[in-house]
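FAQ: What does the model actually see?

It sees only this:
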Amino acid sequence: MRLCAAGVPTLVALLLASSAASAQPVLLAAHGAIAGIVHDPDRPLTLAAEMLAQDVQSVTGARPVVSTDLESCPQICIIVGKRGSPLVAKVARDAGIDLTALDRQWERYARVAVESRSRPRRRYLLIAGSDPRGAIWGVVDLSREIGVSAWEWWADVTPRHRDSIAVDGTLRFSKAPSVQYRGIFLNDEDWGLQPWAAKTFEPETGDIGPKTYARIFELLWRLKANLIWPAMHDSTKPFYQIPGNADAARDHAIIVGTSHAEPMMRNNVREWDEAERGPFNFFTNRKAMLDYWRTRAEAVKEDETVYTVGLRGKHDSAMEGARSPVMARDALADAIAAQHTLLSETQRKPASQIPQALTLYKEVLDLYGLGLTVPDDVTLVWPEDNFGYISQLPTAQERRRSGGGGVYYHISYWGRPHDYLWLATTHPALIREEMDRAWQTGARRLWVVNVGDIKPGEYLTQYFLDLAFDAETFGVRPIDHLTAWAATQFGADFAGEIAAVMSDYYDLAFERRPEFMGFNQVEPTTPITIGDYVRGGGAEAEQRIDRYAALRARAEALAARMPADRRAAFFELVLYPVRGAASLNERNLKLDLAALYMRQGRPVANLLADEARAAHARIVTDTAEYNALNGGKWRGIMNMAPRGLPVFAEPLYPHATFAARPGCVVDPSDLTFVAGRAANHALTIYSFGDAADWSMAGQSGIVSAANSGRLDGGNGFQQRIAIHYDGIARALSPGVVTCAGKTVKLAVQFVTPARPDAPVEIGHVITLTTPYRMSRDWEPIGELGAYGRALRVRLDTPSRGSASAVEPLRYSFATAETGDATLEMVALPTHPLTSADHLRIAVQIDDGAVQTLDFDTHGRSDVWKQNVLSNTARQSIRLPLLTAGAHDVRVFALDPGFLLDRIEVRRDGAAARYGAPLVR
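And it is asked to produce this:
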């Protein structure tokens, strides 16, 4: 919250002119004395006052007196109320302040310390909201200020004790939230939230009931969200069928909506009984469906809601009964018009005054593209493709609609080409990028994020909602936001290290999510296969295993240093996700390597299979530990195998008998280092079952982690040795390896680039990441992509028919030999910004022809599936007989929003590789 007077001169002038306004700190707790809390009697503000009292008690050990009676106020009291309420009006009169500038504002508050004129020495810390939620946000900000995390209950971030609490008494006038409706969708709850609520937290209800929702709604308060789409799977009884759920929403002033598949506040999966009502078919059973919608609209007409309008199938599927897209389009328009009228009739006011939203999800987006008629006052909610990339955003004409626009986003998903329900690994930089697109294109009225089971998506949920509440967050680097968040949870001393660990965790998962490491697909579900990390040999798989092992070691070292009051929180928020991702990768990759090495006759295959078994056992153990935390508080919340998909199943661990053969192998014998660029590589020394000693000698400029060792059954007759170059040495001597009486000279390549940032060829691949000449059409997007920096065509760039008169990005590279090559343009798998745009770039190599490349994908094509699984989109240009010498690549922006990750020049002989080339 900023101290800000911008845009509200009346309020600021009146308050600052008042002699009662005070800039002095307000002492809320000291020496056993504690400020009281006086609040409006409304149920939401009663709960807010009780929450604040509990927070103060958690921090100080003393509980404030909470009352609706101003006379109960001790020397200092916190006033929580709405502008215009009797309590706030009385305090305002007593202090001589005017709050009329809060009138007709949305979720804003004024906070200021004032002196009572009628009671000498009495001071008030007034939190006056323009509405109940405005006052609640004032309470939340005060709780944050005294040291209470949003995750104090949901992730066990226990408030730390303070003997005294003093807060700033200077005037604060909050800005209105940037996005009007901001919230979460509880989804795919079958494996965590629902069984945990039913069996552990709320067994008296046996489901996600009012006790659970009260905790969820308090979390929404602490995250300054105001909207819920309740859980709606078949495993869960519908929200409105459980007594107390709707009351909990009213009590917390939470706006209730429903998902894209639940029009008119109805959960069709369990509320539509075909035996009673007939088929869920608008063509043949229109009256029954209208009556069904009307009943719920009448029941909730006094509640604060955002109605989902539209029509899909009963089970989150395409419309039933439609024989063609045009038929479906026309029926959808008819249904929306009927719902529009129905809402106006039940609430006895114009439908334009009733919040409504149409989520253009899956086939509905296609029907909209066919010319679907939607009332102007309905908010169009634009979906992403379920994998983090927004499918489409509003055109200039659509931005003028009175209903505005919104976004439905996922950080958890069930469906094709593969679920990601276990660990929350969407990269924060991608969330920032995609929601920035929404913000810049005016889709600002409603943002909902599918959080699955809430845990373990805590940070990503908060980041999304922080962006929604305050668009100035877009100006903060994701790593800085993550660092600040870590400081709030664990303290400034740990924040930088935790943020670095989590950043690497997101980077590794961006290349491929843990859930995708079976290299299979769902719907239909296919068996896991040997992954692409070994398609060029074992080196890339070994490198990924090494990276995850190092990441896990850093997280475990932090865990060992963590104070006792943060160990559970650290396990939930950091250690379990990091260890889980590392263990699953280790298990699958080591089994892939074992299969490869068995074919080569290398006994280490058996050891790798055993290590894969141990990795799986760690996942089992860690999950059990998660569910046992804090005396079993979270029993049942964490499931390591949601939907029981093949990637989670314990695999076979094959063993073989190998005939011993003499000799040692040093692999790779070629190590490439680039002058001035520090790097870590590795070499593998192995035998075929004969025990052997090895030693390394004669190195200079590079340092090995070990200079001698022994190959034996304990290490599978194989050792992997890290080699480090510090980037300072100007010359290298590779040295030799002696093993089993044979000496091998290490063929170290030491490349001196033409300039410090010049690309170099490594393994027949030249990777271009940074243009030598930028273009005004492009802008850098930090922390995104394989190398932490992508280039985006500016969102205000117009779509163009050709590259003529377009200023290009320019890259240069040089080759030492003439030969065939391929230029691969590697982008992120975004979609055209709006329906008026495409997703094209044009590319020119040297003085050759300008070639247009179109990266648009259609529907759930095989190309799109591979793109979202790998977070890349590729287009190639053949370069036959590319001549030796210098070359120039020009890249022209033809459409807004295109995201270029890198360019790869792959010469003949380049090994296949799944991920981005190593850039040394």
